[in-house]
Design a protein that fits this description.
The complex is a heterodimer of chains A (128) and B (206). By secondary structure, chain A is mainly alpha-helical. Chain A has one domain: Orthogonal Bundle (Cytochrome Bc1 Complex, Chain D, domain 2). Chain A is built from six helices and two strands. Chain A has a two-stranded antiparallel ribbon. The radius of gyration of chain A is 19 Å and the shape is elongated. The termini of chain A are far apart. The relative contact order of chain A is 0.16. The model of chain A has no long low-confidence stretch (mean pLDDT 89). Chain B is of the alpha+beta class and 206 residues long. Chain B has helices at residues 2-21, 58-61, 79-93, 113-123, 137-146, 188-205, and strands spanning 32-34, 37-39, 47-49, 55-57, 65-71, 99-105, 130-133, 151-153, 161-163, 166-170, 176-181. In chain B, the strands form four sheets. A five-stranded mixed β-sheet of chain B has the order 7-6-5-10-11. In chain B, strands 1-2 form a two-stranded antiparallel ribbon. In chain B, strands 3-4 form a two-stranded antiparallel sheet. The longest helix of chain B is centred in the first third of the chain and has 20 residues, at 2-21. Chain B starts with a helix and ends with a helix. Classes of the chains: A mainly alpha (128), B alpha+beta (206). The A-B interface holds A 35-37, 39, 45-49, 75, 77, 80-85, 87 and B 73-74, 76-81, 83-84, 87, 114-115, 117-119, 121-124.
Chain lengths: 128, 206
């Protein structure tokens, strides 16, 4: 019985070591920079902040341009307007941006495929 | 005789235990002495316009219990999370006519009633249930302090304002009765419970 317990602990530790969470930095950066708006579940806030799960930018490396430059839309309803704004995160390094994009896709894109830092760098260079 | 005594005892016991079961929320803040009488702390003067440009005053809000926060639309930091928790509270009391949800903007220059109307539209909430109020900026900062919510202009802070994400429950006399952390989803169920406690105190007083 006691052996069983030891083996159980051991195997848990080993399997955790073999299967660490792949995007720890990405997750930390998401929590620090994105979660206030896009929320823990990525679903945003009704029509004010878009949901990341289901977003057209999933699986697309050009998502980096939104992170780098931000995004601003003006909502009109005839005569009044409201600004919908995503701030820019131009201070993040390409590696950090890659980790965020990979984290977001890993969590919420059913067709997840990892982006290499090279791909991210190329997309970043192409942003206007 | 002893039987009657026993009956009397059990009767008072039931009465006492019933009234003791009734939870009471505290009244926040220090008491003040006005004209030789002690009075509880109340929130400051509300003279604000809602998203339909209708003037709302304390008297209008005191017909209900209200749940308030202070925010601004272009807030790049904690506001959306607080708004999400406010929305959970809104959902819980959507059909209760005794509760209003109130969000004061601390950036009235940009957050005009018309802009706030669009904001509420995009949050997809009922304009009669959830007021987005704008008014004089300095008075709103003062008001925030009376709700025990710190709010001030600060160029160093993200978006130019420094404020806490507190959600505050106010009763029909203007007393602060409960406070929760809008940035902590786990504190919202307690707030919902506190609102129900406050509401039932009005029912049992009728």
């Amino acid at each position: 019985m006691r052996y069983f317990f030891v083996i159980f602990i051991f195997s848990t530790v080993v399997s955790c070591k073999l299967n660490p969470y792949p995007y720890v930095q990405g997750r930390n950066l998401y929590v620090a920079h994105c979660q206030n708006c896009h929320m823990e579940d990525g679903k945003g806030l009704n029509k004010l902040i878009p949901s990341l799960p289901g977003s057209q930018w999933m699986g697309n490396a050009d998502m980096v341009c939104i992170i780098k430059n931000g995004m601003m839309d003006t909502l009109w309803n005839g005569n009044d307007f409201m600004v919908k704004e995503m701030p820019s995160f131009s201070g993040l390094s390409p590696t950090e941006v890659a980790n965020i994009v990979n984290f977001v896709n890993y969590e919420w894109n059913p067709d997840f495929k990892e982006f290499s830092i090279k791909e991210i760098q190329e997309s970043l260079n192409q942003c206007k | 005789m002893s039987r009657l005594l026993f009956l009397l005892f059990s009767f008072t016991f039931v009465l006492v235990s019933c009234s003791e079961k009734h939870e009471e929320l505290p009244i926040y803040g220090f008491k003040k002495v006005v004209d030789g009488k002690e009075v509880e702390h109340t929130i400051g003067e509300i003279h604000h316009y809602n998203q339909d440009s209708v003037l709302i005053t304390n008297k209008d809000l005191y017909k209900y219990v209200h749940v308030a926060d202070f925010f601004f639309m272009s807030c790049p930091s904690i506001c959306p999370r607080v708004t999400k928790e406010m929305h959970r509270i809104y959902e819980a009391f959507k059909d209760n006519p005794n509760v209003k949800i109130v969000s004061f903007t601390i950036d009235p220059k940009r957050d005009t009633p018309k802009a706030l109307k669009l904001y509420a539209d995009n949050l997809q909430v009922d304009h009669d249930k959830w007021y987005f109020l704008s008014g004089d900026k300095d008075k709103t900062f003062e008001l925030a302090n009376s709700y025990f919510v710190a709010a001030l202009e600060d160029e160093e802070s993200p978006g130019g304002f420094d404020h806490s994400g507190k959600i505050v429950l106010i009763d029909k006399e203007g007393h602060v009765r409960a406070v929760s952390e809008g940035t902590d989803p786990e504190s919202t169920p307690q707030m919902i419970k506190d609102i129900n406690t406050l509401l039932s105190s009005y029912e049992s007083n009728q």
